Amino acid sequence: MASLAMIESPSTTAIIEPASKDDLPPPAYSEEAYADEPDAPRKDEKEGLLPSEAMARDEPANNEDVEITVIDHTPVTASIRSTIGLLHSVGGFRARWRGLGASILYHALHGFVTNLLASFLGFGLLGNALCYIFTSLALMRVHMLWTHSMIAHPTNKSLFARFVPRKQCRVLLLPTLVHAVAQQATFILPLAVAIAMGLGPEMMASKPHGHPDSISSDDASPHKQGCAMMLNLLRLLAVPTTSLFVALAVLLPASVTLTRIEATLLPEDETTLVPFDREAIVSDDINPTVRGASRALFVQAWRSFDSAARLRLVKLYVKMVMAQLAVAFVGFHVVLAEMYLIGGERIGELVKALGEVAKEAHKSEGSVPQ
Q1: Predicted local confidence at residue 347, as pLDDT
Q2: Which one, of 265, 311, 322, 266, lies nearest residue 289 by Cα?
Q3: Where are the domains of the chain?
Q4: pLDDT at residue 146 in the model
Q5: Mean pLDDT, to the nearest integer, of 279-302?
Q6: How do residues 297-307 score in pLDDT, each as one tens digit?
Q7: Which residues contact 250 (CB under 8 A, 6 or more apart)?
Q8: Phi and psi (nearest 5°) for 366?
Q9: 321 has pLDDT over 60
Q10: List of residues 6+ apart from 292 with CB closer than 8 A
Q11: Averaged over 102-108, what is the pLDDT?
């Protein structure tokens, strides 16, 4: 659904109908109607007319007045229900899993190649990120195949017959590189913020004396304890805030740009499920086949995605996250109810035992001299 929302362009319908008599202008001036009047000018006294006026007087009006009504259609991807309805109308119940085979192929190859390169190089976190970016560039045609499987109408072609020729995929180098870097940034930047805030496992286990978390209840005033709690809360909120900011400001534009450029490379004999204005990205000034057009195409792909479409995409992501949280919430309570019916008193005893073990561990840590 997100891929369809990234490529959908606003569509309109123009209704042309004859104008009603009330809306018609008054009849034009006719010389013959006033020819019998006593003060009517003679033909030799009339002033010369302009060519346009003479043409309008001499030629009959063959064109009828019409009313044109333009109706703006609500985007299909504005609602999850309407999007699922569109998919069902195209491919039935299984259409909601369109592109699943290409997705499994892409992620299996990507994970295998990335782990293989990382195991040989062994550069740590930075090395894994570089391997991830390199693998994304190597498999960009497979990723485009996955995108085409989701956004296009069903076709009789096999999965491998839908690969776009390699010469046409040069424009994917820049958006694929930016997208891969953005994916790694959503993981590395929050991790760096967590380490800078002292939220690493080793730092949390061994806090020096004087750290806000190490204030004891004997020598700390309520004011200091309140400040320490506020600082800890801000430190904890810094990580998800950074992750959310990077996802919205970096990863989302990169994903939209890559998907829209991949949609422009869809073969001419295939059509998209939703209206897609390819000419808004590829114009006479921007030719994907010309060398060096990747940067201009990259910028135009994001500019053609207007603010209304961006807001619609963000709302769609929020709805999807809320739906997943609702399913997880219900599933957690169902599993908890099953455990209670099966275990009953044993689960309560296990929870009490774990609580006592935690209390003893806390007491032993407090008794250790610093």
Answers
A1: 72
A2: 265
A3: 76-326
A4: 93
A5: 77
A6: 888 889 989 89
A7: 182, 185, 186
A8: -75, -25
A9: yes
A10: none
A11: 93
Tokens, residue 2 = 């997100």
pTM given for the model: 0.74
**Contacts for 252 with CB less than 8 Å, ≥ 6 apart:** 310, 313, 314
- By residue count, the chain amounts to 370
CB 109 within 8 A of CB 139: yes
Q: Which residue has better confidence, 213 or 315?
A: 315
pLDDT of 183-218, one tens digit each? 999 999 988 888 888 776 555 555 544 444 544 445
